Amino acid sequence: MFPEITRDDVFRLETERLWLRWPRAADADEIRQHVGDPDVALMTASIPHPYAPHDADAFIASVREENGAGGGLHLVITPKNRPNEPIGLVSLHGADRRGAATFGFWLGKPYWGQGYTTEAARALIDLAFGITSLDRIVSSARPDNRSSLHVHEKLGFHRTGRGMRPAPARGGEMEVELFELKRGEAHTLFGARRPRFFSP
Q: How far apart (Å, rounded) are the C-alpha atoms in residues 179 and 156?
């Protein structure tokens, strides 16, 4: 799905306030601290709670492998003035033959309400529609997760319904609002321009 330029761990995206980069082994403690908060983990389908010490290491290894294979792109969110401190993550993964990929994200609780998720997601979505053949991006959020619903709306996603989705970390399924974003409909940060991306 993603081309060669994103498949090297020196790849990064720049926004006004943030650097988005590959997760590293050294990020494990920060990731564990943020997603170990039940207010973060329990709003997702895939983050276990409690979050065991080895969970962050396994997660980082898994997403680095997917990034390297080009099957997805998982980028930690870091403030520009603290590029070694991840505060969240945005990702696209699971592209299918119909040209759709799945969008996901989480943000550490101390950073809620400051627009970081929307800023990071716009850069990733701009990149995806600019350098891949994806036609649409799908996503979901719990109906009671007002912050996530608002992020989807700000990004230009359209609600397509409500349904049940597998939630392995929650022990079964969870009810979610379903969303879709088609190429050309995103409320992007950069307008017609592609985001700046860096890779030596």
A: 10
Say which residue the tokens 């397509």 belong to: 160
Its pTM stands at 0.91
| Nearest CA among 93, 56, 88 for reference residue 73 | 93
Strand 100-107 and strand 136-141: the pairing is: parallel
Q: CA-based Rg of the chain, rounded to a whole angstrom?
A: 16
- Pair 113, 131: CB distance under 8 Å: no
Name the CATH superfamily housing domain 4-192: Gcn5-related N-acetyltransferase (GNAT) (3.40.630.30)
Q: What are phi and psi of 181, to 5 degrees?
A: -130, 120
Domain ranges of the chain: 4-192
Interatomic CA distance for residues 198 and 200, integer angstroms? 7
pLDDT along the chain (200 residues), means of 10: 94 96 98 96 93 94 97 97 97 86 97 96 92 92 96 95 91 94 74 51
Instruction: For strands 172-182 and 158-167, give the pairing.
Output: antiparallel
Helix axes 53-69, 28-35, angle to 10 degrees: 110
